[in-house]
Amino acid sequence: MALLDKRVPNITVLTGDDMPEALAIMWELRRRGYRVMALSSFIAGYPTYWDYVRGENLKAFYRSCSDKAKQRHLDYFYRTIGPVAVRVGLTVGEEARAAAFRDRDWVSYSFPLIEAGMSREDCLMLCHSQGLYPVKSGCVHCPKQPGGSGV
Fold first, then answer.
1. pLDDT by residue for the chain (151 residues), tens digit each?
2. Which DSSP symbol is given to 4?
3. How far apart are CA 106 and CA 10, in angstroms?
């Protein structure tokens, strides 16, 4: 199925406090032959975003984490190798989030799951049919995670 195309690289940003379950899935995809590229969220001389938060005694906030820990590193990577076409895994019901993505000279975005009319449940069924059991990705301390502390 084109939505599980092994030729298309998957990019993830390692924040330094990534959920072990998400890392396990990344390694399983690699084992199965999927191209998974991991970037570090290097920031302000620290090897990862969470080293920066801890080293500077900061309190992380969801929106700044998303930008500083992930999006800035992705943008730098895309500019470096671009122009690139990025397929974002947002599903039906997340069209407002998709509208926030802006094409630039070095990157253009598409949303194949929305275009295919797939809900989160549809995506889970597709993953399960391939023997994959995804978890919510992200940082352990994110307040958006179950039990996340936000610190």
1. 455 678 888 888 888 888 888 888 889 999 999 999 999 988 889 998 889 888 998 876 666 677 888 888 898 999 999 899 999 889 999 999 899 898 999 999 999 999 999 999 999 898 899 888 877 666 777 766 666 554 4
2. G
3. 17
Overall pTM surpassing 0.85 (yes/no): no
Q: Where are the alpha helices (DSSP H) in the chain?
A: 20-31, 49-55, 62-64, 72-81, 95-99, 112-115, 120-129
3 state SS of 65: helix
Cβ-in-10-Å burial (0-12, 13-18, 19+) of 124 comes to middle
CA distances from 79 to 10, 101, 104, 107 (A): 16, 15, 10, 8
Using alpha carbons, list the distances in angstroms from residue 145 to 128, 136, 139, 148, 150: 22, 8, 8, 5, 9
